[in-house]
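[Structure tokenization] protein backbone as discrete codes
[Encoding] learned vocabulary of local backbone shapes
[Protein] chain in single-letter code, fold in tokens
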Amino acid sequence: MADFVFFKALSNHRRLCISPLPNHCIERVLPLTRANQYSYYLYEMDNNSDEDVVILAKLVSEDAALRLREVLSLDYA
């Protein structure tokens, strides 16, 4: 699975992303959920803080990530 990263600015400080979880989130999220570092997630994050990440959804496949990216018109990073 390629590690695609898609994003869209929501404001000056927040952005919406689709990607595997960033490394700094994995340690914090994995013990609390059934999160998988190789899955794609829809999440919102603060541009100024790596700690402020809100996971909105886990996507079931790379194809689902690509389709949701089209629907939300997210940019490729």
Summary: The radius of gyration is 12 Å. DSSP finds two helices and five strands in the chain. Residues 6-76 form one domain. Helices lie at 23-29, 62-72.
